[in-house]
Specification:
Layout lengths: L23 E4 L4 E6 L2 E7 L5 E8 L22 H4 L17 E5 L8 E8 L3 E8 L4 E9 L6 E9 L5 E13 L4 E7 L7 E6 L3 E7 L8 E9 L10 E7 L4 E7 L5 E7 L6 E3 L4 E3 L2 E7 L2 H17 L18 E3 L1 H4 L5 H14 L3 E4 L29 H9 L3 E6 L3 E2 L4 H5 L19 E2 L5 H17 L4 E4 L21 H19 L4 E4 L17 E2 L7 H14 L6 E4 L13 H9 L2 E4 L8 H23 L1 E6 L7 E7 L5 E10 L19 E8 L9 E3 H7 L10 E11 L1
Parallel strand pairs: 21-22, 21-30, 22-23, 23-26, 26-27, 27-28, 29-30
Antiparallel strand pairs: 1-2, 2-3, 3-4, 5-10, 6-7, 7-8, 8-9, 9-19, 9-20, 10-17, 10-18, 11-12, 11-14, 13-16, 14-15, 15-20, 16-17, 24-25, 31-32, 32-33, 33-36, 34-35, 34-36
The structure holds alpha-D-galactopyranose.
Alpha-D-galactopyranose binds next to loops.
Length: 740
């Protein structure tokens, strides 16, 4: 179930002297289940009523400490029974439950009461499998738990099985519910819209429920399936307890964070129950996505560092042919043609761009939209995945050969799940789109969504992609998805079963991606959905990288990159340098500023480089070379957000330190200097105090008289002083520190 997520890493850390080596333990006497990993203990037990009750989630306790047996929470007068106030691991809706249920079903006879009690368990190599059963009927739920020994991140999911003689309908199914005791907390979550993704939203938890969700059929720009809850009223980057989680699902999802009648917190996440209905016939089962949860006592920064390492080690596709342990490759520096040419691609034009890209030291050339079918603009062509003869009279081969001769590999844009009504595919198969017969089919960007849940559509999509990758030497696909659902009917199925589309569409998407990776193991994928509309830990099992936003303005990107990195590693965060003034904000910035903004993530170039001056070409070439030297540290190291660009800050700065603390990279940005203020001294973090580091500018200068070589202790306690002339509007500097 966990795609071998943890099995390769079940070697427990031996540095935690005094702690047990066993990751999963069950105490028969107290009926307490315990998971331990890194600095985390997670415990739950079976209470006297037979419910599975959450007991503890937080910093690791000693092996000798026993977690007391589960005692149901008190009732609150005659209005809130103990069933609803007790923090259950996976509660059925029944018996007077008023908090979010993990599972809600309707039986064939109209009964809607479901009360899940412990039935049996198994200790697995990853954690536990716990079977719950309804008190009367044969509805079984198998909860799976796994803990990562390196980060203490727990993965949880649920499989619901109908062993009754009649079908049941699942109306709500979570992957997991997490609980925290009553206290003051601050909730952090990510919100956005097209070209405005990744806004970190922070608020005090209050009584009632905060809902983060997508009803759109896919992950969505509006909210992202991630949360972090910090103890106390003030969010803190560097200290304090933080519980965080991320849902691995790319379809409609929901995470609710609620403070119950006794002020305790429940976080419940899984399939979005809105318009949901999944019929389980006798013997059938439904598996939820995985909901990951973690804990850090080093503030929001500590939480994101754990998540980044977890994503790199366990979620992202592994390096092919180099064994399970090989980390994902740092992303090649790419060139992408979209902002330079939009749909006006041609063999001659793309070759001209490729020659310039190669001169810059780019590793991968990607041709974006416009190369297929009758695609002149966004009105036609989606669905017809043959090479456009007018634009590429000899097919893609001459361009691909040229790109290879220039020592780059070749990538291509596709949008496989969509169709324009003006296409051969739609004319042939109008029934293939999501629709309700006899109702309008709402278009967005002149396109409709193919119903990937259908077997024939799935086979068509897999077939054309397999053919494209077999016939052309393609190293990379940018997989786009440029609208959300409307009229989500699946008229092949009986009415009661049509809502299965919310699950089956996403499962088929994952199936296609997995099959393509199997058949074409060297091909890498990017998940794009008009920017960051499909970024989550589900798609990141298949996608090597993501496109965070169509907004490439370098100042806006600083804020987006700040928000993005709370949940996702810079390894997957593609960032292109595009032209100035920017098309969106009409803001002019220097090439250095744009380059450094993008160098905080996985660097790409997306400008019309045929128009760049010799000086611009030289600057970009120099900075790409400098980036190649520090890239692994920047994208796979420990990230410290030293000064946030949020809330109108004049300044911002980040620092990353590689795993063995031999290198660190610092980026500093000025939005606009006011009243002549100089850049604040940067006290660095995460270095080895006793190691000597030499600072080398990548761009910019240290203040006159500053040492360039000093101990980690100096850089962390005294700090780094930037040149006093580092002032103005949209200024950027970057430095590397290397162990001497
Ligand atoms: C989406 C993507 C862009 C580009 C266009 C092409 O908007 O996010 O990067 O690929 O589609 O149509």
């Amino acid at each position: 179930m966990f795609r071998n997520i943890f099995s390769s890493l079940l070697v427990l850390s031996t540095s935690l002297v005094g702690f047990s080596q066993s990751a999963a333990r069950f105490d028969e006497a107290t009926k307490v289940f315990r998971l331990e990993g890194a600095n985390v203990t997670y415990a739950f037990g079976v209470n006297a009523r037979g419910e599975l009750q959450q007991l503890y989630w937080g910093g690791r306790i000693a092996t000798a400490d026993s977690v007391p047996a589960a005692i149901p929470a008190r009732e609150w007068a005659s209005f809130d029974s103990s069933y609803t106030t007790t923090a259950q691991e996976y509660a059925g809706w029944g018996a007077g439950l008023f908090v979010e249920p993990a599972l809600k079903v309707t039986f064939q006879d109209g009964n809607r009461d479901l009360v899940l009690h412990y039935d049996s368990h198994q200790i697995t190599s990853e954690g536990f499998k716990i079977v719950l059963k309804d008190i009367k009927r044969k509805v079984f739920v198998t909860l799976q738990y796994a803990i990562d020994p390196q980060t203490g991140i727990v993965g949880r999911s649920a499989t619901i099985e109908n062993r009754e003689a009649e079908p049941i309908t699942i109306e709500q199914a979570a992957a997991a519910a997490w609980a925290l005791p009553a206290a003051h907390y601050t909730l952090n979550y990510l919100t956005g819209r097209w070209a405005g993704e990744w806004t970190l939203t922070q608020e005090k938890l209050q009584p009632g429920e905060r809902v983060m969700e997508s009803r759109r059929g896919s992950t969505g720009h509006q909210a992202n399936p991630w949360f972090a809850i910090q103890a106390g009223d003030n969010p803190d980057e560097n200290s304090g307890e933080v519980w965080f989680g991320a849902l691995a699902w790319s379809g409609s999802w929901r995470i609710t964070v609620e403070q119950d009648q006794l002020d305790a917190i429940r976080v419940t996440g899984g399939f979005n129950p809105f318009d949901f209905g999944y019929v389980l016939k006798p013997g059938q089962s439904l598996e939820s996505p995985v909901f990951y949860g973690g804990y850090s006592d080093h503030g929001l920064g500590g939480a994101s560092r754990l998540l980044h390492h977890f994503e790199i080690a366990h979620v992202l596709p592994r390096r092919i042919g180099e064994g399970e342990a090989a980390a994902p490759k740092p992303r090649p520096v790419i060139y992408n043609s979209w902002e330079a040419t939009e749909f006006r691609v041609s063999e001659v034009g793309q070759i001209a761009l490729a020659e310039r890209a190669a001169a810059l030291g780019v590793d991968r050339f990607v041709m974006d939209d416009g190369w297929f079918g009758q695609r002149k603009d966004d009105h036609a062509g989606l669905g017809d995945w043959y090479v456009n003869q007018q634009k590429f009279p000899h097919g893609l081969k001459p361009l691909i050969d040229k790109v290879h001769a220039l020592k780059m590999d070749f990538g291509l844009w596709v949008e496989p799940e969509m169709v324009n009504p003006d296409s051969d595919l739609y004319r042939k198969h109008p029934d293939w789109v999501l629709n309700f017969p006899g109702r309008p089919r709402s278009e967005q960007r002149n396109q409709l969504v193919l119903n990937l849940a259908r077997a024939d559509v799935r086979d068509y999509v897999l077939g054309f992609l397999d053919k494209l990758l077999s016939e052309n030497d393609i190293a990379f696909l940018k997989w786009d998805y440029n609208r959300n659902w409307s009229e989500p009917g699946w008229d092949q199925l009986p009415p009661a079963e049509q809502k299965k589309v919310y699950v089956e569409f996403t499962r088929n998407l994952y199936g296609i991606l997995a099959e393509l990776k199997k058949r074409h193991p060297k091909v890498e994928l990017e998940s794009c959905s008009g920017g960051g509309g499909r970024v989550d830990l589900g798609i990141l099992q298949y996608a090597d990288e993501v496109w965070p936003s169509d907004n490439t303005d370098p100042f806006d990107r600083l804020m987006q990159q700040d928000g993005f990195t709370y949940a996702y590693t810079p390894q997957v965060m593609m960032a292109w340098v595009t032209d100035s003034p920017h098309w969106g904000n009409k803001r002019s910035t220097s090439l250095q500023y744009r380059m450094l903004s993008s160098m905080q993530g996985s660097l790409g170039i997306g400008a019309d480089i045929t128009k760049w001056t010799d000086e611009e070409m030289a600057t970009a070439k120099r900075l790409i070379a400098a980036y190649h030297q520090v890239q692994v540290t920047v994208v796979q190291g420990d990230l410290y957000r030293l000064i946030s660009p949020r809330n109108g800050s004049e300044f911002s700065a980040t620092q990353t330190v590689n795993r063995d603390k031999s290198q660190s990279v610092v980026f500093a940005f000025i939005h606009s200097t006011n009243e002549g203020r100089g850049f604040p001294r940067l006290k660095l973090k995460g270095l080895d105090a006793k190691t000597t580091y030499m600072v080398t500018p990548i761009e910019g200068e240290l203040v006159h008289g500053s040492p360039t070589t000093a101990s980690g202790a100096w850089w962390m306690n005294h700090g780094l002083d930037l040149d006093e002339n580092f002032r103005g509007d949209f200024q950027a500097a970057a430095f590397r520190l290397d162990k001497k």
